[in-house]
Amino acid sequence: MTTTVLPRVTYLNVRHGLASWLLTKDHKRIGIMYLIVVSLAFFLGAIFAAGVRIELTTPQGDFVSADTYNRMFTMHGVFMVFFVLIPVVPAILGNFVMPLMIGAKDVAFPKLNLLSWYVFVLGFSLALVALLSGGVDTGWTFYTPYSSNVSNSNVALVGVAVFITGFSSILTGLNFMVTIHRMRAPGMTWFRLPLFVWALYATSLVMILATPVIAITAGMLALERVFGFGIFDPRLGGDPVLFQHLFWFYSHPAVYIMILPPMGVISEVIACFSRKNVFGYSFVAFSSLAIAIFGFLVWAHHLFVAGISPYSAMVFSFLSFAVAIPSAVKTFNWTATLYQGAIWWRAPLIWVFGFLGLFLVGGLTGLFLASLGLDVHLHDTYFVVAHFHYIMVGGAIMGYFAGLHYWWPKITGRMYSDSLAMLSALLVFVGFNLTFFPQFILGYLGMPRRYHAYSAEFQVLNVLSSAGASILAVGYGLIAVYLLYSLWRGEEAGANPWLATGLEWKTESPPIPENFPETPIVNEGAYEYSKREIKVA
Amino acid sequence: MPDGLAARADPHGHAPASATGSGAAGHHPALQHHFQTLEQQHEVATLGMWVFLVTEVMFFGGLLMAYLLYRVWYPAAWSEGSLELDIRLGAFNTVVLIGSSLTMAFAVRSAQTGAQRATVRWLIVTMILGLTFLVVKYFEYKHKWDLNHIPGANFQFEGPHAHQVEIFLSLYFGLTGLHALHMIIGVSILAVITWMASRGRFSPQWNTPVEISGLYWHFVDIVWIFLFPLLYLVDRAHQLG
Asked: CATH code at B79?
């Protein structure tokens, strides 16, 4: 590792003071600002998860009342879905590295990028106000007519928070899409783009097309709550199932907003730490687009038992199975990339291995739920809870940490403790499986989700699950400890500690404010590791 | 699609050589630091606005989906509700908005040819037409308010399908309210653009803000072109015939 002692200007020290951050237009600083807010939301969401797991250690509802329990799992879902999983990879890592990866000075609309952050913080603040005024008890899905006519919790405020936060996501997607189209460095053709950029492009597509629908749906719900409009009201002849359709038209593709960017991260990290070009680059690139497109055509698999026509259910079941194809293309290609690679055992790769294991289980159990007959049995049980946590936490969050560990030296210019990072990856992997695997069995045995008391026969598995959650908490806590420690005691990283390809590694760590001294010119593909000297420390 | 666009993007990728050439002569004052050329900046802004309009289509799409479902389910109530709307005011507003799109197109053309005073004049005419629309809309809403036709606790309606008419009117206020909000935003944008134009910010080389505000304005106009028949003209022919 090179150790430069010369004082130099980076994006971090070019200006000082709070105002220099709050008024910045630098995509790198905005990425850091997202990191702070999203981490806060993650912490809040985790506290509610802890409350839920403590309640479920005993079959009786004795820790909190049923009503409080409803509010806890709802606020857990609201914070984790809208304020963590949706923005976590695109808004933090995407904002920071995507312009660097394509050799641009910034995103296409830097002011809009800052505005997205403020919109996000506004939505987050409203959700906090809703929380402090008692929270919401509808579940994060806000199903009508309970949410519109019955619940006496603060549904309208959370609806408005979701509406507003949606615009942050829309503007980020718009910004990324235009950036990828128009801001690439000379020679950076579409098929030389890193796969993370392809994944972000596919994600932007989903953000742009799906998010407006949840925004208007949350808006309609708020109109119904505040002014007594009747759009979903069955007393007037309105259809609550229409709400479910509109909700899932966004919220299913939203799963791909959560998982596609981490998939892009996985491609970067696997190529780097097996010192090989990604196997079947164009297949991996196009499978991102395929997932984004298929993702729009499967929403009604959430409604199999809501009384939709059996013929449409068959079509949606078939299409849901079809999503497995591009997902499997990715998984097989990653495995093939590792095959005969010069594997370099460093922490980011360990996180990737965790991702692969958990994503595999999450993806395959999705096929169980896409089967019409089986879904009748498993719908609204813990099987569903386990399945989507394997994808959304096991997949998305493992992928996020893989990316954070991979780019941390670039973002901060410092190295963290590799062995502690491996330890935390291991703790998270073990803790995660212990938390959620028992839930598959619970669901199969018939334990419904969202109940605060349950039959005594389910206790052993629930205690296992709660024990796993505490290991998970230690694993996540450890990350915060060694990453923060690295900020002032970490070794200097140098421009390219992983000897990786990619433009982001060609500039200094942390990068200079304008990213590159002069616009880079690209004349090779994204992963030409075979041409590089393989140096494994 | 990506390939074609990549081919178009490439020349800008190779632009730095020419940009340094023009850089010696001094940058255009409107050129932002992260772009290489004004042309790139123009294309970024235009693409950004088009993508934004796509999100707007999806935004209105959620409400229109609800409209479509209930119209198929409750055709009689839709006919009844539609007859409650004032077709003359609706038609007048349609003409006003189409006229405003024409004047907006004149404003864009004037900006492209560098006719500063004409640009300002046409922008002002466009804003006046937009405000006319909003004033008429206000009186339509006021009338509904007086009749207790606003959905909610005080809703009153005589007729065999009163409940479903309430859904119709919920969607009427949802759709036209959202449209009116877009009009208000549009007029505000035009006010800023007019101010910029009067300060001589635009030239034949740089008039992108006028052009993309025009795109937005035309979009809001087109939304109304859909809303007018969907809301005001349900079963009118039947009534006339």
From this structure: 1.20.120.80
Q: Please give, rounded to a whole number of angstroms, the shortest distance from the CA of B219 to a CA of chain A.
A: 16
Return the biggest CA–CA distance within chain B.
Answer: 76
pLDDT 10s digits, A58-109: 999 999 999 999 999 999 999 999 999 999 999 999 999 999 999 999 999 9
**H or E, element range at A11:** none
Contact between chains at B66 and A230 (C-beta distance less than 8 A): no
Answer positive or negative: Cα dihedral of A425, A427, A429, A435: negative
Q: Distance between CA atoms of A391 and A360, rounded to whole angstroms?
A: 9
Beta carbons of A211 and A166 less than 8 angstroms apart = yes
Strand partners, A448: A381
Phi/psi for A492 (5° steps) reads -70, 135
pTM for the model: 0.93
Q: What's the rounded Cα separation, in Å, for the pair A297 and A320?
A: 8
Question: Measured between alpha carbons, how far is A79 from A153 in angstroms, rounded to an integer?
Answer: 16
- Omega of the bond prior to A510 within 30 degrees of 0, cis? yes
Strand partners, A414: A492
On whether residue B156 sits in a domain, the answer given is yes
| Chain B residues near residue A185 by CB distance under 8 angstroms | 13
Per-block mean pLDDT, blocks of 10 residues, chain A (537 long): 64 93 96 97 97 96 94 96 97 97 96 97 97 94 92 92 95 97 96 97 96 94 90 93 96 96 97 94 97 95 94 96 96 95 95 97 96 94 97 95 98 96 97 97 96 95 97 97 94 93 94 93 90 54
- Name the residue among A290, A187, A257 with its Cα closest to residue A526: A187
Q: What is the DSSP string of A214-244?
A: HHHHHHHHHHHHHH---SS-GGGT--HHHHH
Q: How far is CA B63 from the centre of its chain?
A: 16
Does any domain span residue B27? no
Which among A163, A275, A161, A170 is positioned nearest to A215, based on CA atoms? A163
Q: Domain residues of chain A, as ranges?
A: 23-531
Q: Which residues on neighbouring strands pair with residue A381, listed in sequence order?
A: A448
CB spacing of A108 vs B13 below 8 angstroms: no
Cis peptide before A145 (omega within 30 of 0): yes
Residues of chain B found within 8 Å of residue A145, distances taken between Cβ atoms: none
Q: How many domains does chain B have?
A: 1
Q: Please state, in angstroms and rounded to a whole number, the distance separating the CA atoms of residues B113 and B96.
A: 26
Quote the pLDDT of residue B26.
61
ipTM of the complex: 0.92
Q: Are A87 and A38 in contact (CB under 8 A)?
A: yes
CB contact under 8 A, B59 and A109: no
Amino acid at A39: S
**CA B96/CA A137 separation, integer angstroms:** 47
Query: Could A220 and B63 be called an inter-chain contact, meaning their C-beta atoms sit closer than 8 Å?
Result: yes
CATH superfamily of A23-531: Cytochrome c oxidase-like, subunit I domain (1.20.210.10)
